[in-house]
Amino acid sequence: MSTAPIFRRVALIGFGLIGGSIARAARAQALASEIVTTARSEKTRARVTELNIVDRVLATNAEAVQDADLVILCIPVGACGPVTQEIAPHLKAGAIVSDVGSVKGAIVREMAPHLPANVHFVPAHPVAGTEHSGPDSGFAELFIDRWCILTPPDGTDPMAIEALGAFWAGMGAKVETMTPDHHDLVLAITSHLPHLIAYTIVGTADELAQVTSSEVIKFSAGGFRDFTRIAASDPTMWRDVFLNNKEAVLEMLGTFNEDLSKLTRAIRRGDGEALFEHFARTRAIRRGIVEIGQDSAAPDFGRPHPPLKKAE
Ligand code: NAP
């Protein structure tokens, strides 16, 4: 990976899972001569100071972006518009302004109008994460072999796109560029809908009167617990994703409902052939994901299993 710093000063606005992981990875790979950060609350800022991962922790967004060559907003999608408005007068000419939001069309609509003409705007989405949040949750390896999608508006300086791409590649990510609308459609099916389904199933199980909640937890290894991991994701982040990618999610939800109706009909009619055909197709998709290295081939998602005790 990279050895020479790509940027002189990088400013991270927000220090949770993503901001904290960028700070740790950029520091480990020496991608910036200086990393400064800020967070909304005094509590988080104090914790980041204690962690001693960045060069300076500043009290305000305006102070943090001062003289920064790269500014990355690592905050919920819904907060990006107002924060951009706040930092705009303090940005250095020629700076690159980016974000990490899981939705891109709304980010461009909310951020671009506030930015001065003398900065480069290159929105980004690292397709990597966990269900944990906060300043302690980040880790330097989060982006290794994960995609980072850049969605620069038409006419963006290619040098700025290249520099941001090199920064993400330096943290181990594979970089791809696409339009914000295409990003939102792809992510609606690969990320947003799966989260919605997980939130639904976990909520439904919680409401079932015939099955006690202790049984749901006890027998969760039957598949339920894999949904609970996704459904434990940050409520603020996911509220903002669904509010800001409404059209694409509703379109995918329409297709999903049609497919669910087909499977419902096959079960009702006892159509084993239709069910088998469907499940064989989906099994092949899983194998494809493993083949391209996007998940481990280890059984049970690589969870450790204790050895069987020898009979006395
Ligand atoms: P996180 O761990 O909850 O951290 C969020 C950070 O944003 C905190 O520093 C928080 O400050 C700050 N913040 C929250 N609300 C704010 C507001 N209204 N104004 C200013 N700052 C605010 O979140 P995260 O998981 O890093 O997510 C950050 C962004 O990354 C989101 O846009 C999300 O879509 C995107 N993303 C997340 C994942 C994932 O899996 N988590 C993956 C890819 C992209 P305090 O700590 O002071 O409250």
From TrEMBL:
Reaction it catalyzes: prephenate + NAD(+) = 3-(4-hydroxyphenyl)pyruvate + CO2 + NADH
Q: In which pathway does it act?
A: Amino-acid biosynthesis; L-tyrosine biosynthesis; (4-hydroxyphenyl)pyruvate from prephenate (NAD(+) route): step 1/1
Superkingdom classification of source: Bacteria
Where in the numbering of this chain does the Prephenate/arogenate dehydrogenase domain appear?
8-297
Q: Which GO terms describe its biological process?
A: tyrosine biosynthetic process
Q: Which InterPro entries match?
A: 6-PGluconate_DH-like_C_sf (IPR008927), NAD(P)-bd_dom_sf (IPR036291), PDH_C (IPR046825), PDH_N (IPR046826), Preph/Arog_dehydrog (IPR050812), Prephen_DH (IPR003099)
UniProt entry keywords in alphabetical sequence: Amino-acid biosynthesis, Aromatic amino acid biosynthesis, NAD, Oxidoreductase, Tyrosine biosynthesis
EC annotation from Swiss-Prot or TrEMBL: 1.3.1.12
Q: In the record, what terms sit under GO molecular function? A: NAD+ binding; prephenate dehydrogenase (NAD+) activity; prephenate dehydrogenase (NADP+) activity
SUPFAM superfamilies, alphabetically? Answer: 6-phosphogluconate dehydrogenase C-terminal domain-like, NAD(P)-binding Rossmann-fold domains
Its EC top class is oxidoreductase
Q: What is the name of this protein?
A: prephenate dehydrogenase
Organism expressing this protein natively: Bradyrhizobium valentinum
